[in-house]
Amino acid sequence: MRLVFALMVAAAPALAQEVVTPQIPREEGLAAWDRIFEVTSHPRCTNCHVGDAGIPMWEALGYGEERVHGMGIVADDSRIGAESVPCRTCHVTSARANTVPHAPPHIDDAWRLPPIELEWLDKSSAEVCAQMRDPETNDGNTIAELVEHLQTSAFVAWGFDPGAGRSAPTGTVEDIARDVALWGEAGTPCVEG
């Protein structure tokens, strides 16, 4: 019994170091979360963050009626559309600017849908918040890694600047990266419900 107690006492400082006290007030973190959710719930993002359905959408982007992505695209497990028509058939991997309205979109990365666990389509603020704060459901990322992803992802950059004739969420890559960092510093608070 003494050995168990001694081990517990020895481990206590290490455990105490893992507890992070938020540096930012909860209210500021919740305000940052509201801005984050405004982006994550924008159709430019949710149309690809479709979860295990693997069917990208064309909703609320100003292209006419809301509907599933054309050409019968189904990403399934590959997330690249290999089970139907690969994303790269129409989405071009290149660093070329997206200047022609509704021309095939270009990014300097291989086109694919986000991982299944990153489903945002039809999810509430509370659901997306709980998902993003948990490495088990955010593709294994810490908050710092999420910030880095936002700052370096060609997909995120394209989402904020998809080119002529395409709608985009409010703000910039820098804005959302700053908000995610702030939200993290506040202890990743979520709204209830």
UniProtKB/TrEMBL annotation:
SUPFAM superfamilies: Multiheme cytochromes. Keywords: Signal. It comes from the Bacteria. Residues 1-16 form the signal peptide. This is Cytochrome c domain-containing protein. It comes from Sulfitobacter brevis.
